[in-house]
Amino acid sequence: MPKSHKTEITVRFVPDGKEVRVPAGSTVMEAAARAEITVQSSCGGRGACGKCKVKLLSAVTEPGKSDVRHFTADELSQGYRLACLTRLAEDAVVEIPAYSRLVREKISLDGLGKKVEVEPVAWKLFLQLPEPSLEDQRADLTRVLEALGEQVSQPTDLSTLQALPDILRQANFQVTAVCSDGELIAVEPGDTSTQLYGMAFDIGTTTIVGYLMHLESGAQVAVDALVNPQAQFGDDVISRISHASTEGGLKLLQQKVVEAINHITLETCRESGVNPAHIYEMAVVGNTCMMHLLLGINPASLATAPYVPVITEARVVAARELGLEMNPHGRIYVLPNIAGFVGADTVGVIIASGLEASRGLRAAVDIGTNGEVIVAKNGRLLACSTAAGPAFEGARISQGMRAASGAIDRVSIGGSSAKEAGGALDSLLQIHTIDETPARGICGSGVVDAIAALREIGLITASGRLLDAKSAPETAAPYLARLEGTGGQTRFILVGADRSATGQPICITSQDVRELQNAKAAICAGVMVLLDEMGAVPEEIEEFLLAGAFGNYIRRENALAIGMIPALPLERVVPIGNAAGLGARLALASAGMRRLAEKVAERVEYVELSNRPDFYSRYTDAMELAPVVTS
Amino acid sequence: MPKSHKTEITVRFVPDGKEVRVPAGSTVMEAAARAEITVQSSCGGRGACGKCKVKLLSAVTEPGKSDVRHFTADELSQGYRLACLTRLAEDAVVEIPAYSRLVREKISLDGLGKKVEVEPVAWKLFLQLPEPSLEDQRADLTRVLEALGEQVSQPTDLSTLQALPDILRQANFQVTAVCSDGELIAVEPGDTSTQLYGMAFDIGTTTIVGYLMHLESGAQVAVDALVNPQAQFGDDVISRISHASTEGGLKLLQQKVVEAINHITLETCRESGVNPAHIYEMAVVGNTCMMHLLLGINPASLATAPYVPVITEARVVAARELGLEMNPHGRIYVLPNIAGFVGADTVGVIIASGLEASRGLRAAVDIGTNGEVIVAKNGRLLACSTAAGPAFEGARISQGMRAASGAIDRVSIGGSSAKEAGGALDSLLQIHTIDETPARGICGSGVVDAIAALREIGLITASGRLLDAKSAPETAAPYLARLEGTGGQTRFILVGADRSATGQPICITSQDVRELQNAKAAICAGVMVLLDEMGAVPEEIEEFLLAGAFGNYIRRENALAIGMIPALPLERVVPIGNAAGLGARLALASAGMRRLAEKVAERVEYVELSNRPDFYSRYTDAMELAPVVTS
After folding, report:
1. How confident is the model over B368-411, as pLDDT tens digits?
2. Domain covering A357-390+517-621, topology
3. Number of C-beta neighbours around residue A305 at 10 A
4. A200-334, superfamily in CATH?
5. Which of A46, A352, A369, B343 has the least CB density, counted as fewest CB within 10 Å?
């Protein structure tokens, strides 16, 4: 039978002894995969990396261009070839040396309840290039690009090209190529191929968190956080937008966030002994306004109806353009926004938690300076932003503070033993401060706890009135000594002046109760409107995710008790921490997650609440400090 | 018969009355093309430009997204649709209004013996965008990109994005989008869509020529030239390379060429009343060294074997990166080089003259400061660079000068009348100067003429010796008064001191003859080696192109007489002027020509002469000042 008619061939691998049948014309790599032998490769099978060396023991093929580049004449005559490009036309026996076998598993990174494969857009390859000669007059750039394979394009940065001839010659043509997103971005002398790092950032209105990651392994090397230095121009998004419209304001706000990012980058590098020049990629999430300020884009249009952003698309920015501390040829991937008040941070929450793939009904709130709500079902995604305000971060609360040392973060009514003890003031209420230092103020979870406790005692009514001593019910008798003032001026002392760090009593005021009511009603009403849009009822919610640092501190019981979220069995309420930041880390480590983020941002249906009468009626309904009864 | 089985439909156009059969599912645009009616379109049929408005008189389709964007509800109900996206499922009658018909023909530009379609990479579109509302909260960027169609990507320049919100609002969302190579590069207030210009440059070692073109029509608006100001650092490529290696030298050389480009751009704009900010594209050719210097890349490796360039690939550079006077978001297309001494200018010569498509044997030499030779046959292209030196530009000739006012450009032995007049010195030789002003020196074509004339008189031997009065033959008797000196110091006076502009006699020296011999022998030997490589003989050459300004000045008879090129019938020798500059103009006006240039640069087989013994023997053979006899 003539060879051309033979459509299947047999390939035997040694030393394994495995034998497979594959179509004639298959590559050795494909045949090995069929035999479940994983051959090393870091160039995607383009003949560039030279890691997939195998030896043909029979049916030796003509060497290809890539073979000639990677093997000596001696090796070629022994039958050495690259597995990725060598096609077998007839039955063959192939030896796969130990050094070409991939021993480690594909590395993956934990999302929330899902594994994400580490596949960074940046990669490095150490090249040992032949030196130019009259027989090989290829240009410097061509020499490097051809060693990398045809898929890699020349550097956008002219400076990379300008530096190329000196680097090649000083390093005797032994260099490491750095590629990002299919482009050669830098060439470094010698072998630096293991030094491949990235930073992921979550830029909150209040806090900026940065994560240093090793891109090849997906390992988190260090993490650091700073207060967003823009806070000096106002603690909420609207005051930042106002400041951006003042003379030089936009530039200054951009400079502040860049300084903070640089500070975190240098600090994490210092801690872990990483050279900042070996950071080639960053991935950034944040709310839409923070993303605009980072990019130096005036967010003015966000402040007034119809609240239109300048950009929602994901964007890749050159390190130079922003002046970030990293490799000067590195890039910053800014995740896409969804709308004026639903930003890249929400996209981060979605991709980290897999909401986009949820079949059953799931909901999430990300509570930061604003509260974004997401409802997902059967691939459909709805999102809205509620003007929850920064109450949950302790702002606008009379003695509110961030969740830092000395903040009251937990308040509960004393255990039975305390009650039995018969009324000693401090044993009736269990008050905990972060780091257990004397109280300096109260943070969001402390406010929620305190108000839930006062509701239980009977000192706060369902409508949110903080009763004074005259109006207090019997049940509150043991606590009356903590009440000061009357009517709308009433306040409840959590920690007396003698025991606080400030010399002032730490209290909950009538106004604090009102602030919390507003904030929780906004979130709850947002959830209800999205459920209506989805044609669903709260009971169907299989999982309710609480994202943001606050989500980790708050006691779920109390969130349910005060009606911040619809009434659900406790186990369905799941705190997931800084999911936005995790989303940034996933987008840093995985090109696939970037594509997912972009698809998600396009798919999310944004629901504008400002012109919806049903939102305002839901909001009014949700003001009550009691579990949300919906049926 | 059910509709789905109907595979062809009939479409009738009014008012033409033309009727065509097309497959069901064809667009109106396709059906119109079949009927030979050209419908306007400037977005490539993506529903973006709205120029292809037609009215369905029957079989009215559901309006698509683009229809809704371009027509009022009233127009939609009347049957108005966009021809490009409207697919016809059944027989239909379609009215094509006059305003949607394309009256002008496709514009084309003349190459040498070929027509090139004008299809610039940059285009503009005036957009009348709907203003944002709570019902249409699309981001500014999304609003612009969606109006342009999905093929256009967001701007690389962050500054374009930063400027976007203000421009949109100040111009009431009536803006002109500027796109280049599939990217939105700028947005301008109001309608500037007709203001679309580009510059093409030929950067010679000696002279820089710039052409201002209107990109939509392909019309040349103005042209200007300057001496390359780098000349102050040496008149040849090697001295520029040496200077580039001195401290600050590279930067200075780059700055000089940028200044010259800017000067030419501003001058052509001033002449023609064009705003330089409306120049969005440039296309540049030049030799490899000039291209490196323009890009700020050290060309040091060109100076020593193996003469390797840093880059041969074509490159797109941002206007900002080079500091060029044009729209700050504009781009410069640098044509590809072939090798260290065969540059983008040679690629320009090839694409302008269509050598790449030549079936029969054709040859070309581009004579500038160096002499590049190309031989083409049957799609195969060979090229080499000959170290001809700048003799043909008048350099290294004792009284040589560029082809400028006062240069002796033509020398011939006087006509019979002069001879009959019986020997008056000036009537024996016809000497012409450029602008017919008193002689200041002699340019390349003058040198060739003078030496050919002296050969004819018998004062120069075939081996190149300039005879002194003692050795002169009988035939030279009438000219002996013009001879001075003896042996190697002999010189022949063309214009006496009393009649020259310099007060010095203008002469040809023994050394000048030697310079010319070297230069012409190098070119001739280059041609012969390439012919050998091609397996061809000179007699087969169907056309021999002389490119470069010199090619227009030189008398072909004399080029043949002194053996600068192989002996051929005169009519086969064709001067083509600055074909490199024409190549730059074609690449400016046509994306297709850019792709062709890139393919050509890859396809040309570069022949390195420096290590070829056959070149040196050919060179020695070609020293003789006589027609090249090859058979």
Report:
1. 878 999 999 999 999 999 987 677 877 789 999 988 899 999 99
2. Nucleotidyltransferase; domain 5 (3.30.420)
3. 14
4. Domain of unknown function (DUF4445) (3.30.420.480)
5. A46
Amino acid letter, residue B56? L
Contact between A311 and B140 using a beta-carbon 8 Å cutoff = yes
Summarised one tens digit per residue, pLDDT across range B600-618 is: 999 999 999 998 999 999 9
Verify whether the Cβ–Cβ distance A297 to B161 is below 8 Å.
Answer: yes
pLDDT digits (tens, 9 = 90+) for A415-448: 544 333 333 445 688 999 999 999 999 999 999 9
Average pLDDT (B180-199) is 95
DSSP output for B29-72:
HHHHHHTT-PBP-SSSSSS-S---EEEESSSPPPP-HHHHHHS-
| Residues forming CATH 3.30.420.480 domain(s) in chain A | 200-334
pLDDT the model gives residue A386 = 92
Look at A255-264, B66-75, B444-453 and tell me which has the smallest mean pLDDT.
Answer: B66-75
Classify domain B3-100 at the CATH topology level: Ubiquitin-like (UB roll) (3.10.20)
Cβ-contact B127, B174 below 8 angstroms: yes
Residues of A contacting chain B (CB within 8 angstroms): 132-134, 136-142, 145, 154, 158, 161-162, 164-166, 169, 295-298, 300-301, 305-313, 315, 317, 321, 337, 339-340, 606, 608, 610-611
The count of other CB atoms within 10 Å of the CB of residue A481 is: 13
A336 → chain B, closest CA residue = B139
CATH architecture of the domain with residue range B121-189: Roll (3.10)
How far is CA B414 from each of CA B92, B366, B470, rounded to the nearest angstrom?
A: 78, 31, 24
Q: Within chain B, which residue ranges are assigned CATH 3.10.20.880?
A: 121-189
Closest to A204 (Cα-Cα) out of A233, A226, A232: A226
Paired with A9 in beta bridges are A22
Specify the CATH number of the domain B198-334.
Answer: 3.30.420.480
Residue B1: per-residue pLDDT: 39
Q: Judging by beta carbons within 10 Å of its beta carbon (0-12, 13-18, 19+), is residue B535 exposed, middle or buried?
A: exposed
State residue A559's pLDDT score. 93
Residues of chain A predicted below pLDDT 70: 1-6, 42, 44, 102-107, 150, 415-427, 630-631
Please list the residue range(s) of chain A that carry CATH number 3.30.420.40: 357-390+517-621
Question: Which amino acid does the sequence have at B469?
Answer: A
Which residue do the tokens 């890749």 mark?
A: A316
**Cβ contact, residue pair A137, B606, below 8 Å:** yes
> In which residue ranges of chain B is CATH 3.30.420.480 found?
198-334
Tell me the average pLDDT of chain B: 90
Q: In what order do the strands lie in the sheet with A371-377?
A: A573-577, A543-547, A362-367, A371-377, A380-386, A605-606
Whether residue A140 and residue B311 make contact (CB cut-off 8 A), yes or no, is: yes
Residue A342, strand partner residues: A339
Query: Does B109 score more than 90 pLDDT?
Result: no
In angstroms, the separation between the Cα of residue A249 and the nearest Cα of chain B is 14
pTM across the whole model: 0.83
User: What pLDDT was estimated at residue B550?
Assistant: 79
pLDDT (tens digit, 9 = 90+) per residue, A507-528? Answer: 999 999 999 999 999 999 999 9
What is the distance in angstroms between the Cα of A185 and the nearest Cα belonging to chain B? 15
User: A165: distance to nearest CA of chain B, Å?
Assistant: 6
Q: B74 Cβ partners below 8 Å, 6+ apart?
A: none
How high is the ipTM of this complex?
Answer: 0.83
Residue of A nearest to B163 (CA): A297
